[in-house]
Specification:
7 strands, 7-stranded mixed beta sheet, Maf protein, 193 residues, elongated, 29% helix, alpha/beta
Protein backbone atom coordinates (compact mmCIF):
# COMPACT_ATOMS: atom_id res chain seq x y z
CA UNK A 1 0.00 0.00 0.00
CA UNK A 2 1.26 3.47 -0.91
CA UNK A 3 2.12 5.55 2.11
CA UNK A 4 0.13 8.81 2.13
CA UNK A 5 1.99 11.66 0.43
CA UNK A 6 1.62 15.15 1.85
CA UNK A 7 2.90 18.28 0.14
CA UNK A 8 3.79 20.73 2.91
CA UNK A 9 3.02 23.75 0.77
CA UNK A 10 0.08 25.75 -0.49
CA UNK A 11 2.03 26.88 -3.56
CA UNK A 12 -0.02 26.24 -6.70
CA UNK A 13 3.26 25.92 -8.63
CA UNK A 14 4.52 23.09 -6.42
CA UNK A 15 1.16 21.30 -6.59
CA UNK A 16 1.14 21.54 -10.36
CA UNK A 17 4.66 20.11 -10.55
CA UNK A 18 3.91 17.26 -8.13
CA UNK A 19 0.86 16.27 -10.21
CA UNK A 20 3.27 15.39 -13.04
CA UNK A 21 4.34 12.32 -11.05
CA UNK A 22 0.76 10.96 -11.16
CA UNK A 23 0.79 10.01 -7.49
CA UNK A 24 -2.09 10.81 -5.15
CA UNK A 25 -1.19 13.47 -2.60
CA UNK A 26 -2.76 15.83 -0.12
CA UNK A 27 -1.78 19.39 0.72
CA UNK A 28 -1.15 20.85 4.16
CA UNK A 29 -0.15 24.41 4.99
CA UNK A 30 2.94 24.64 7.21
CA UNK A 31 2.83 27.56 9.61
CA UNK A 32 6.48 28.45 10.17
CA UNK A 33 8.59 31.58 10.39
CA UNK A 34 10.39 31.77 7.05
CA UNK A 35 12.90 34.40 8.14
CA UNK A 36 16.59 33.76 7.62
CA UNK A 37 18.71 33.37 10.73
CA UNK A 38 21.49 35.92 11.31
CA UNK A 39 24.45 35.30 8.95
CA UNK A 40 22.74 32.24 7.47
CA UNK A 41 23.74 31.43 3.89
CA UNK A 42 20.87 31.35 1.36
CA UNK A 43 21.33 27.63 0.58
CA UNK A 44 21.26 26.81 4.30
CA UNK A 45 18.09 28.87 4.76
CA UNK A 46 16.33 27.09 1.88
CA UNK A 47 17.22 23.62 3.16
CA UNK A 48 16.42 24.45 6.79
CA UNK A 49 13.01 25.84 5.85
CA UNK A 50 12.18 22.83 3.65
CA UNK A 51 12.97 20.56 6.60
CA UNK A 52 11.04 22.75 9.05
CA UNK A 53 7.96 22.66 6.82
CA UNK A 54 8.09 18.87 6.60
CA UNK A 55 8.66 18.47 10.36
CA UNK A 56 5.77 20.79 11.21
CA UNK A 57 3.34 18.87 8.98
CA UNK A 58 4.63 15.47 10.16
CA UNK A 59 3.05 16.16 13.56
CA UNK A 60 -0.38 16.19 11.89
CA UNK A 61 0.25 13.12 9.70
CA UNK A 62 2.01 10.34 11.66
CA UNK A 63 1.79 7.81 8.80
CA UNK A 64 2.95 9.74 5.76
CA UNK A 65 5.77 10.86 3.54
CA UNK A 66 5.96 14.63 3.87
CA UNK A 67 7.44 16.74 1.08
CA UNK A 68 8.79 20.12 2.11
CA UNK A 69 10.35 22.67 -0.21
CA UNK A 70 11.51 26.26 0.01
CA UNK A 71 13.37 28.62 -2.27
CA UNK A 72 15.74 31.50 -1.61
CA UNK A 73 17.00 33.66 -4.47
CA UNK A 74 20.23 35.56 -3.90
CA UNK A 75 22.96 37.58 -5.55
CA UNK A 76 25.83 37.98 -3.12
CA UNK A 77 24.38 39.25 0.16
CA UNK A 78 21.18 40.48 -1.52
CA UNK A 79 18.16 38.15 -1.17
CA UNK A 80 15.06 38.25 -3.33
CA UNK A 81 11.85 36.91 -1.81
CA UNK A 82 8.27 37.08 -3.02
CA UNK A 83 7.75 40.76 -3.83
CA UNK A 84 4.09 41.00 -2.79
CA UNK A 85 3.65 44.41 -4.45
CA UNK A 86 4.31 45.77 -7.91
CA UNK A 87 6.76 48.34 -6.53
CA UNK A 88 8.77 45.61 -4.79
CA UNK A 89 8.75 43.53 -7.99
CA UNK A 90 9.92 46.54 -9.99
CA UNK A 91 12.76 47.13 -7.51
CA UNK A 92 13.80 43.45 -7.55
CA UNK A 93 13.91 43.36 -11.34
CA UNK A 94 16.02 46.52 -11.40
CA UNK A 95 18.51 44.93 -8.98
CA UNK A 96 18.60 41.64 -10.89
CA UNK A 97 19.05 43.32 -14.27
CA UNK A 98 22.37 42.25 -15.81
CA UNK A 99 23.24 39.98 -12.89
CA UNK A 100 23.41 36.27 -12.14
CA UNK A 101 20.98 35.20 -9.44
CA UNK A 102 21.25 31.84 -7.69
CA UNK A 103 17.92 30.27 -6.84
CA UNK A 104 18.52 27.82 -3.97
CA UNK A 105 15.69 25.29 -3.78
CA UNK A 106 15.63 23.25 -0.58
CA UNK A 107 13.87 19.89 -0.66
CA UNK A 108 13.04 17.46 2.13
CA UNK A 109 11.20 14.14 2.18
CA UNK A 110 10.37 13.08 5.73
CA UNK A 111 8.94 9.68 6.66
CA UNK A 112 6.77 10.49 9.67
CA UNK A 113 6.60 6.81 10.69
CA UNK A 114 10.36 6.32 11.01
CA UNK A 115 11.50 9.92 11.41
CA UNK A 116 13.99 9.39 8.58
CA UNK A 117 14.45 12.44 6.39
CA UNK A 118 16.30 13.17 3.19
CA UNK A 119 17.24 16.75 2.45
CA UNK A 120 19.13 18.51 -0.30
CA UNK A 121 19.53 21.98 -1.77
CA UNK A 122 19.47 22.30 -5.54
CA UNK A 123 20.94 25.50 -7.05
CA UNK A 124 19.85 27.05 -10.34
CA UNK A 125 21.96 29.81 -11.85
CA UNK A 126 19.94 32.40 -13.72
CA UNK A 127 21.43 35.22 -15.77
CA UNK A 128 19.17 38.23 -16.29
CA UNK A 129 19.48 40.43 -19.35
CA UNK A 130 20.07 44.15 -18.93
CA UNK A 131 16.48 45.29 -18.50
CA UNK A 132 15.13 48.70 -19.40
CA UNK A 133 12.45 50.39 -17.31
CA UNK A 134 10.04 49.94 -20.22
CA UNK A 135 10.73 46.18 -20.35
CA UNK A 136 10.20 45.84 -16.61
CA UNK A 137 6.89 47.71 -16.79
CA UNK A 138 5.71 45.75 -19.85
CA UNK A 139 6.53 42.48 -18.09
CA UNK A 140 4.72 43.46 -14.89
CA UNK A 141 1.71 44.59 -16.96
CA UNK A 142 1.44 41.16 -18.57
CA UNK A 143 2.37 38.67 -15.84
CA UNK A 144 1.40 38.40 -12.19
CA UNK A 145 4.79 37.72 -10.64
CA UNK A 146 4.08 39.04 -7.15
CA UNK A 147 4.02 35.62 -5.47
CA UNK A 148 7.26 34.14 -6.82
CA UNK A 149 10.78 34.61 -5.51
CA UNK A 150 12.64 37.07 -7.71
CA UNK A 151 9.56 38.48 -9.48
CA UNK A 152 10.12 36.51 -12.71
CA UNK A 153 8.30 33.31 -13.68
CA UNK A 154 10.65 31.33 -15.89
CA UNK A 155 7.79 28.98 -16.79
CA UNK A 156 5.92 31.95 -18.25
CA UNK A 157 6.77 35.29 -19.82
CA UNK A 158 9.61 35.77 -17.32
CA UNK A 159 11.79 33.59 -19.54
CA UNK A 160 12.04 36.61 -21.88
CA UNK A 161 13.98 38.47 -19.18
CA UNK A 162 16.74 35.86 -19.03
CA UNK A 163 20.08 35.30 -20.75
CA UNK A 164 20.51 31.76 -19.40
CA UNK A 165 19.37 29.22 -16.86
CA UNK A 166 21.78 26.53 -15.62
CA UNK A 167 21.13 23.70 -13.23
CA UNK A 168 20.76 19.94 -12.89
CA UNK A 169 17.00 19.95 -12.32
CA UNK A 170 14.90 22.18 -14.61
CA UNK A 171 11.88 22.13 -12.29
CA UNK A 172 13.91 23.38 -9.31
CA UNK A 173 13.59 26.96 -10.49
CA UNK A 174 9.78 26.65 -10.47
CA UNK A 175 9.93 25.51 -6.84
CA UNK A 176 9.95 21.70 -6.67
CA UNK A 177 12.95 19.80 -8.08
CA UNK A 178 11.22 16.73 -9.51
CA UNK A 179 14.34 14.80 -10.55
CA UNK A 180 15.71 14.98 -7.02
CA UNK A 181 12.26 14.35 -5.54
CA UNK A 182 11.88 11.18 -7.61
CA UNK A 183 15.22 9.91 -6.29
CA UNK A 184 14.12 10.62 -2.72
CA UNK A 185 10.70 9.02 -3.18
CA UNK A 186 12.24 5.87 -4.70
CA UNK A 187 14.63 5.70 -1.75
CA UNK A 188 11.59 5.92 0.55
CA UNK A 189 9.95 2.98 -1.23
CA UNK A 190 7.62 4.79 -3.63
CA UNK A 191 7.32 3.07 -7.01
CA UNK A 192 7.89 5.36 -9.95
CA UNK A 193 8.60 4.47 -13.59
Amino acid sequence: MLQQLILASTSPFRSELLRRLQLPFDIAAPDIDESALPNELPAVTAQRLAQAKAQTIAKQFPNALIIGSDQVAACGAQRFGKPGTRENARQQLRLMSGNEIIFHTGLCVLNSITGHSQAQCIPTYVGFRDLTEAEIEAYLDKEDALNCAGSAKSEGLGVSLLRYQRGDDPTALIGLPLITLCEMLRSAGVRLP
